[in-house]
């Protein structure tokens, strides 16, 4: 407390010092970054602040952004990344775009050339503000040191309020060196047009309650908004009270426990057969904090053709964007659901539940887990990691087949426990995000599941993992291919595997070189013991699972097809004849 | 009936780069701008944009206003397409004219409420204001002469009637800026 008061007393500080003071005021304990010419003053000042804010040196600025993103997703706090001007700042872009698509609160600070050189194509000058405008929630260039503290205050407020997102703060080097009196503003100074709090539209809720009462085949679609708004309890209460099955989007996983009796799993392109069928046959969809991405709708013209639709989202621009709905509700999901609940009558939809169970039975005849095989399928690996970790791990994925396999087979009961790049689908996200997540202070084992393609995009971060001695376990699913693209080539390009076979280094030697514990597993019986052994080890570990090359992720809706027009895994007997020869 | 043009008025912060943000947004969301006019207003620090697009889809029209409202630099946004509003354009035309034609041209100019504002070396500059059909028709008539240069400003829009809510709202917003926990509902939410 006394320290806090002291910090509010005005002092003359440099811009660089003000940056650190502001971060401390915002409760930042860790940030991820990379130094260079244009942020040197900030790094120099860090020497004084290093005991209060831990700096993690990633091996690439993209990964600093991904690590900040992983930290934000795992902690619920704003992630912070720091880069120099020019190439440092442009390297942030993929990480920022990833965070933007998935509504992740993040503040990125970039150094910039001095004000006198702005616009002159100076060494390492790039118009990062211009480049970031379409990729950020908001962006600032601070050209007046007296505004610096206020801008950082506003940046954090914008990043975390309403629909969260990344905010850029670009600071010319001479502003970092200038001095001014530092006072951290008590309140943000964002225009009132930016109004993340909205009142609950009661008349609309009465209508929704009536629609729920009249529905026979209702489905709730639960997206990332459930987690962001902390609405899991209200969501489950609604599902239980009115007996409504809940399907989740990729980022909505964990918004309702996978083991909850009303949870019918993951929807969309690689979603559950029964979930997609339920959505298509529904007479009422209640979409909660999701945005009807094309990966979850399939062909829009035939999407859930007979349902009335309710859409609740904090961002009004998401309403009636892709799917036209009967009742668009702008609001904070938790508040809206809490207001809706008392208006909803208890109900039972036994016939509907039975229908969905029938669809489940159909897919069970094709379930790969029921296959007896000596081969190591990646689905087996994920299923066994789930068992070994008792479903309690904080799981991070990269992008590709393994990501979808995790969504299908790591039955997630917990909130904020699957970190994955959904909207942008950024390969290379996994490793740095897992490193970032390890700083969130969650009492959970961290498992990164990553492909042999994706890990090679950001494998340099193994050095960061070792330097920081983070407790992350890497399950590398090595199928020798860019698996997901290979799958598309198999299905839609007549098996022409153009540039998808990919070679890798000897990962055991590589782990040795980087100095982390490495294992290789190629038989099912070794999966669980090795996972347990790795997990018991302090510090980073990597297990290379050498899996079947030609495995496919099923079921699958081809891009642009009807949501229930699904390619299914062959029946178990056919799988034998097909694959054993 | 859906009008072929969609007109909105956006009140935004008068800050460097705000126009860039609006235009970047419209490009990214695939809106085709037919005209865009920005200028100062009665309030310091507040600029006013009139944006005309050819967007015909009603949901996309609504979402365009919402997207602009979502910009952190936006105060408020009004869709004036379907409300009574004055939508006007300004035009400058340089016409090369012989002395013999001058009388006739002056008559035409007067007929359209336009004005000759410069006359030198056989050319005159005419200014005109009006709604788009008037300007259009005036230009058609001017084609009888030799048009050397022509420039249209793009459209400016203002709602008819006192519409005092807008003034009240903007004033409230600018005084409210400190610690904005304001509950003001934006026009479009
Ligand atoms: C940065 C980036 N480049 C390309 C892609 C396209 N892509 C999506 S999945 C995939 C293959 C991933 O292969 P791998 O990492 O081995 O994982 P697998 O699918 O085999 O599990 C590719 C190339 C992408 N998503 N991101």
Characterise the protein shown here.
The complex is a heterodimer of chains A (about 575) and B (about 190). Chain A is of the alpha/beta class. Helix content of chain A is about 40%, strand content about 15%. Chain A is globular and about 70 Å long. The termini of chain A are far apart. Chain B is elongated and about 60 Å long. With about 190 residues, chain B is of the alpha+beta class. Chains A and B meet through loops of A and helix 1, helix 2 and strand 4 of B. Bound molecules: thiamine diphosphate (TPP). Thiamine diphosphate binds next to helix 17, helix 19 and helix 21 of chain A.
Descriptive keywords:
heterodimer, A: 581 residues, alpha/beta, Rossmann fold, 6-stranded parallel sheet, 22 strands, 17% strand, globular, disordered N terminus, B: 189 residues, alpha+beta, Alpha-Beta Plaits, 2 domains, 4-stranded antiparallel sheet, 5 helices, 8 strands, 30% helix, 37% strand, binds thiamine diphosphate
